[in-house]
Amino acid sequence: MSPMGIRLSPLGVIIFCLLGLGVIYHLYSGVIANRIASFRQAKTVDLRELLALSVEAAVLGGQEVKRIREENALHEKSKGKTREGAKEMLTTGDLFSHRKMFNLIKNTFPNLQVNSEEHDDASVHETSVWNHVIPEDIRNTISESREVPAESITVWIDPLDATQEYTEDLRQYVTTMVCVAVDGVPVIGVIHKPFSAYTAWALVDGGSNIKARTSYNEKSPQIIVSRSHAGKVKAFAQKAFGNDTVIIPAGGAGYKVLSLLDIPDEKHEKADVYIHVTYIKKWDICAGTALLKALGGHMTTLKGEEIDYAGSEANEGGLVASINMNHKALVDKLPNM
Ligand SMILES: Nc1ncnc2c1ncn2[C@@H]1O[C@H](COP(=O)(O)O)[C@@H](OP(=O)(O)O)[C@H]1O
Ligand SMILES: [Mg+2]
Ligand SMILES: [Mg+2]
Ligand SMILES: [Mg+2]
């Protein structure tokens, strides 16, 4: 008999305790599972793996871009206007490519910050995960892995660059791009051309599958510029390099960076310098910056400042890109905006 006159059966006490534990487990199981999941998520990421994943994402996105164009199912619409009043086009190609690229990266490394130009309001559940196989060309060029803290990484993706030209069926200008910045500094750049199945990739201080050309005209450079967001770039370039300067209008920021390099495609135009004077966003230019940087080139604002590839998407200061020339001397020739 207990002091209160209630008799406690040992079996009853055990059952009561088990029930209590069950209730506590039920209440906290979600919390515990989340804790375990976040502990399991990689705290560091290997840049060589991230390069291989970036290539895979750009290629899979590119397949969507190509398919939608071939099926003539663009369903183009304007998603707004640029500051200069040009229509910002959105097509099914942009959207389907975004779904593939964004989800592949997020499903593989859920805790990475991934900034895409596009958004998916339908939130289609795309479950693809990367198979972690590093292709032979990457393994042969980059022999070592390099771990960096996941929290230092910002990934920028452009699921379809040169959308305006895509709607005009100017397929040669279209690319898909992935860039990885560590602490705001671009270290991985991938530019993929879906209609010619060509991919350029680079890891800064690691290696790449593309080279600079052997010579560039530094005195009278041929300047590649935007054809659909040109602003006053022609007058700007002529002021710097003279009225006879050859100006090449072309679509796509990815296309224009590749035109500075030794790309194995006769049809891809060649230029010495890329200049852009209107507003542009970081998913348009980060991959190009990384590729150029890996090969010893530069992409800066028109004042020669490095661009911080963390934080906001905006780049306000224009762009000048060059390789195998004195970039500082080039910047000094440019007029004030
Ligand atoms: N003034 C501006 N405002 C917003 N985006 C711009 C811009 N100028 C260029 N861009 C973007 O930069 C990319 C290259 O432009 P361009 O072909 O004119 O050189 C295009 O990307 P998207 O096609 O991915 O939207 C384009 O939309
Ligand atoms: Mg766009
Ligand atoms: Mg773009
Ligand atoms: Mg785009």
UniProtKB/TrEMBL annotation:
It is an enzyme of class 3 (hydrolase). Pathway: Polyol metabolism; myo-inositol biosynthesis; myo-inositol from D-glucose 6-phosphate: step 2/2. Mg(2+) binds at E117, D158, L160, D161, D284. It comes from the Eukaryota. Its EC number is 3.1.3.25. One of its GO terms (biological process) is phosphatidylinositol phosphate biosynthetic process. It is found in: Membrane. InterPro entries: CysQ/Inositol_MonoPase, Inositol_monophosphatase-like, Inositol_monophosphatase_CS. Coiled coil: none annotated. GO terms for molecular function: 3'-nucleotidase activity; inositol monophosphate phosphatase activity; metal ion binding. It catalyses: a myo-inositol phosphate + H2O = myo-inositol + phosphate. It holds the Pfam family Inositol_P. The keyword Transport does not apply. GO terms for cellular component: Golgi apparatus; membrane. Its cofactor is Mg(2+). Keywords: Hydrolase, Magnesium, Membrane, Metal-binding, Transmembrane, Transmembrane helix. The keyword RNA-binding does not apply. The chain crosses the membrane at residues 12-33. This is inositol-phosphate phosphatase. The lineage of its organism: Eukaryota, Metazoa, Chordata, Craniata, Vertebrata.
